[in-house]
Amino acid sequence: MLKIPRIKIPHLSIRLSLLVVWQMVLLLLLSLAALVYFSRQALINEARSDAEQTLVGTEQHIDNVLMTVEQTTYNVYQDLQWHLDQPDRMFTYCRNIVETYPYIVGCAVAFKPNYYPGHELFLAYVHRSDYEQGTSTLISATKFGHRPYTEQVWYTQPMSTGRACWTDPLPEEENEGVTISFCLPITDRHAECVGVIAVDLPVTLLSQIVHANKPSPNSYSVLLSHNGSYIVHHDDDKLEDVKNALDWTEKNAGAGAHEAAEAMLSGATGFKSFQMNDEDWCVFYKSFRHESSIGQPIDHLKWSAGVVYLKDDVLGSYNNLIYLELAIAALCVLVFFLLCHMLIRRQLRPLHMLTHSAQRIAEGHYDETVPRAQTTDEIGQLQDVFRRMQQSLSTKSSELEQLTSMLKMRGEELRKAYDGVQGSDRMKTSFLHYMTTQMTTPADIIERSVVKLSNNYLTITPQEADYEVSVIKRQSEIVLDLLDHMIEALQIEADESEKKLKAGKEVCHE
After folding, report:
1. Is the separation of the CB atoms in 106 and 200 below 8 Å?
2. Which pTM does this prediction carry?
3. pLDDT value of position 197
4. Which of 36, 99, 220, 339 has its C-alpha lying 20 to 30 A from 182's C-alpha?
5. pLDDT of residue 185
């Protein structure tokens, strides 16, 4: 198992600063994490709210346009029912509708086959020429497209259902561009469906309405029909080439985009994230609600609108703000560490002084001066206690030095006394040797006289005996005199030794 070596930091101030900074960084990271989470949610909720408002505003604008077209068509339809027997008048109705509103590009009135005698198919059609170039020339025609109108959806759907409806985008016909049509079935006095009146709106108008609400630089809005085809898209290729949003998202986008398309077609309202072209996107969507105000029943639109955001538009500045906050936090941590280190180092300055003083005292400098504490906290109390300890130690050291000096002096005196005793012993030995030597001659003389008297006491004369006795007496007096001197000297030496012994005991006692 790999062991991570511990970094040894010798300075207490740095360790304390790092400890404090670490705790602060931990709290800061927790605070930033909470801030990041809740601010991210707030931004997403704000973006969702903006998207919802965008969608609601777009829906209301489009709904107003659709209702205007429906109401205009229905007003004309009420008059048209009273003149069904006048086929030429149908062109007048179509022209009036197209002229009334500049955003209507065409109007057609078609009847079922053989409704008018002599006309197998009858179609009155008026449309604007070159609408996208801003011209207002109206053209009348009796046909629409390349197929019979009886095969076209704008005619067959209301004829089969008997209900008004809006068609999905119809392909470009007669140079008026891609359109959607409001189709209203025409009934006669017997309530029989005999024809259809269709009013065309250009998809470009809806695109302008949708694209006018652009919440962010890279956002765009889409409008889907009930079968998944695009009604409005910011990319014109999608309108021309892509037949179904489900198929396109399944092949070209991630699972999230496909799920979002499915949810939109189901009529749901919500939010989805997905990836496309290696970028993160999100879409806010809701079903398109449209309530008709005409007097006839109408098939409800099953459209769905969505606002697609590039996530960087929503969270880009937020992510930059996070990076900026992290940089500021790192700078603040560094500044906090420096300030904390300076403050702690200042607070620990007495400890550094005490450490230096303790080192000096350990080296034998017992007179090291410790200043009085300037604070009353724990460090100040420790400094005062250490100062008193140093003063006591200095006093004891001085007393010990005085005692050592005195003991040294007394030892010198004892050494001198010992040397004196040693000298006295040598002198006494010399004296005893001298006295012994002095007593040898008299003792030899006495011994010879005694031997002589002992060996010749029968033959010795009285004069000779008196002489030997006198010799013995005289030599005995000499020996006695020497013994008296010896005893006197020993007595003097004993008195001096006793005095020195008493003096030594007094020194040791002191």
Report:
1. yes
2. 0.57
3. 94
4. 220
5. 92
SS (H, E, C) 294-351: CCCCECCCCCEEEEEEEHHHHHHHHHHHHHHHHHHHHHHHHHHHHHHHHHHHHHCHHH
Using an 8 Å Cβ cutoff, are 372 and 353 in contact?
no
Q: Which two tokens stand for residue 350?
A: 């007495």
Q: Assess contact for 203 and 176: CB atoms under 8 A.
A: no
Q: How far is CA 85 from each of CA 113, 116, 188, 197, 220, rounded to the nearest angstrom?
A: 15, 8, 10, 15, 49
Sign of the dihedral through C-alpha 466, 467, 468, 474: positive
CA–CA gap between residue 411 and residue 115 (Å, rounded): 156
Residue 196: predicted pLDDT:
94
Residues ≥6 apart with Cβ < 8 Å to 258: 246, 249, 250, 274
**Which residues lie across from 223 on neighbouring strands?**
232, 305
3-state secondary structure of 158: helix
CA dihedral 26, 30, 32, 37 (to 10 degrees): 160
Residue 180: both structure tokens together? 């959607």
pLDDT in tens, 37-65: 777 777 677 767 777 777 778 788 888 88
CB contact at 8 A, 126 and 138 = yes
252: left (phi over 0), alpha (psi -120 to 50) or beta: alpha
Decide the pairing of beta strands 193-202 and 220-224. Answer: unpaired
Of the candidates 372, 356, 326, 316, the one whose C-alpha atom is nearest the C-alpha of residue 29 is: 326
- What CA–CA distance (Å, rounded) separates 228 from 232? 11
Query: Closest Cα partner for 263 from 277, 245, 280?
Result: 245
Neighbours of 41 (CB within 10 A): 10
Residue of 254, 351, 265, 348 whose CA lies nearest to 302: 265
177 neighbors 148 (Cβ within 8 angstroms): no
